[in-house]
Amino acid sequence: MQQHDIDWDLPAPFTIEIAVRPEDTDRLGHANNVVYVRWLEDVSWAHIESLGMTWELHEKTGKAMAITRTEIDYLASANAGDQLVLGTWLTDYDGRFRSARQFQLVRPSDGRTLVRAVSTHACVDLKSQRPARAPKEFAEILGSAVVAGGKGL
């Protein structure tokens, strides 16, 4: 199986590798839409943790970035046994409350982009679950990680 160069939508994505398991598939035989959402969450957490926005920091500040919207375009099916690469970028941060993230799911064996997605997030207080201003630690991490040219808020 030949590996194709991945044509990423934006430069230098943070990536994780995904092996599609039989239990990830639905009655149609391809990865279920719920599984794609889980993969988006997995890569999002891995990315922010790699930037230093660990769960310990969330607990210390009492704040977290909660998803407010996810938009997913399913372009081609993933099937059991497929080896995939999911890339993500932080594409916007308003400096106070909201951030945006872009995703691209690729099957390297044929170079196809299977999914493109965008999510928006708002800072919330962990106890009250109400909107809250992002702590300075979040602002520094998110602000420095934004990649230009992506889909914003």
UniProtKB/TrEMBL annotation:
Pfam families: 4HBT_2. This is Thioesterase superfamily protein. InterPro entries: 4-hydroxybenzoyl-CoA_TE (IPR050563), HotDog_dom_sf (IPR029069). GO terms for molecular function: fatty acyl-CoA hydrolase activity. It comes from Marinobacter manganoxydans MnI7-9. PANTHER family: 4-HYDROXYBENZOYL-COA THIOESTERASE FAMILY MEMBER, ACYL-COA THIOESTER HYDROLASE YBGC. It comes from the Bacteria. Keywords: Hydrolase. Signal peptide: none annotated.
